[in-house]
Amino acid sequence: MIDRDEVLHVARLARLKLDDGEVESMARELSGVLDHIAKIGELSLDDVRPTSHVVEVVGRLRPDEPRPCLPREVALEQAPSVADGGFLVPSPQA
Amino acid sequence: MSAPEIIDLSATQAVAEIEAGRLSAAELFDAYRARAAADELNCFTWVAPGADGSPPAERSATPLRGVPLAVKDLFCTAGVPSQSGSRILEGYRPPYTASAVARLAAAGAPLLGKTNQDEFAMGSSNENSAFGPVLNPWDRTRVPGGSSGGSAAAVAAGLAPWALGTDTGGSIRQPAALCGIVGLKPTYGAVSRYGMIAFASSLDQAGPLTRDVTDAALLLRHMVGRDECDATSLGHPEEITLPTAESLAGVRLGVPEELAGEGIDPGVLDAFRGALERARELGAEIHDVRLPHAPHGLSAYYVLAPAEASSNLARFDGVRYGLRRDAPAPTGDREADEDGGLVGMYTHTRHDGFGAEVKRRIMLGTYALSAGYYDAYYGRAQRVRTKIVADFDAAFAEVDFILTPTSPTVAFPLGERTGDPWSMYINDFCTVPMSLAGIPAISIPCGLAGDGGGGELPVGLQIAGPVFSENRLLDAAFALERALGFDGSRARGGAAA
Known about the structure:
Strand order of the largest sheet of chain A: 1-2
Distance between the termini of chain A: 36 Å
Strand content of chain A: under 5%
Structural class of chain A: mainly alpha
Radius of gyration of chain B: 22 Å
Shape of chain B: globular
Largest interface: A-B, 53 and 73 residues
Order of helices and strands of chain A: HHHEE
Strand order of the largest sheet of chain B: 1-3-2-4-6-5-10-11-9-7-8
Oligomer: heterodimer
Distance between the termini of chain B: 19 Å
Number of helices of chain A: 3
Number of strands of chain B: 11
Largest sheet of chain A: 2 strands, antiparallel
Order of helices and strands of chain B: HHHEHEHEHEHEEHEHEHHHHHEHHEEH
């Protein structure tokens, strides 16, 4: 139902590196799960509206007033790598 | 008071003893800290060195009087490890505390420790944790359920007076059932999600895991309320009160054949039917109700929850916190280097940081949301959700509550279901429909059963009610709890050194 190439395509979308062994087992396991899920294809749902959220959330506004936020040094404290007061990452061109 | 006497008190009784001056909050904290520190079940990922926060004199004026709380790892706690059971958050100590935990601390429940869980709350056995599995205190060769397995086992084993968990598709109720304790999933929106490391935002809800129904009510009372940091949190229309009902006279209970027949183990069904008999003796009317779409809940859930998770877990990229793995240095070979640089850092970090089940769900969710499949999976699942909500609305027009077994089986042996994902997912069969509908549901222990392999293991009874029916739900559960007379004390004996 879902083959090796499809697994690799989805893994790329998900920014997930998979080992060769993982690609095989993922294809098998996802196919198995999708077989079960496919049962909802048998239901007649054409006139049914979708539910994304059970709570009716209305936009709530608050006054736009300045207030303290997370200090920069606290925000950077947990980062694996920092430089010049920011998060340091490898070059996208590398 | 001796340590065994202290551990024998429910949390509500401990509050009363402290109030009466027969027990000090410090004595209570130390008794539980000693047990938590000697934990042999792998319930805790971190144990507090002492009760922090307000001085004892101040705490004695609070409603919860210093009765300490075990908290599932995924709740952010300032300065305290919070990894959601994942390697990708190795070493993470959040700069702030989740609202539910902060509210309970302000009400007088200091942090006792953080509890083990399935990674990012994805699992029904606690076997998907980076910290290793939790053992069931009733039988250490078996799972405690999940994903709030550490919280459930800690309360059952008397390593914590009470605990906080989260429930996305059954993650409070199912481990409560498998460990013989009480677990309540409140109405979606009743408790703030702020500071909970997210799994599936339209389903995640925090709730209590406790020794009895009264403790669940007391803990919930101090958790609910609107929080401006969570736009989906709602004020509860009623103050949560402690349950007092002794009878179920005139209460209409519905039993849906879809969730209380086929697929449920015979031993579990026997205990469930016994509980229905007790309910009838208490004056309840038992009715058959139909939830025709409930059996499709599992399929809908395993599209919607992974879809939301694949989006929520995009934040774990090695940039701002937790684990980072850089890609190998560039070689000049164009094809090999495609996996390098910034994107390579993302993919390698996520490869090393996420466990197998989390990867599976990210893949499943990404697939369901990808071009060409969105309507067939995500769109359809959202429509099934609408049908399930409508099924419950129709049922609650006829009955006050719906009763089902909480889990199709008793606690199963460690390793038994790790080979086939669907065999694990099926554990959520009875609990997922309530999650999709956002309604409150409680699991209370209703007896013991074997599983063919013998053994006497707890069975959970699930009671679900309409949105915001928590007070009536707790009352009904309380009346039934007394009539059932379940004794969970065996799990507390010898669980700690």
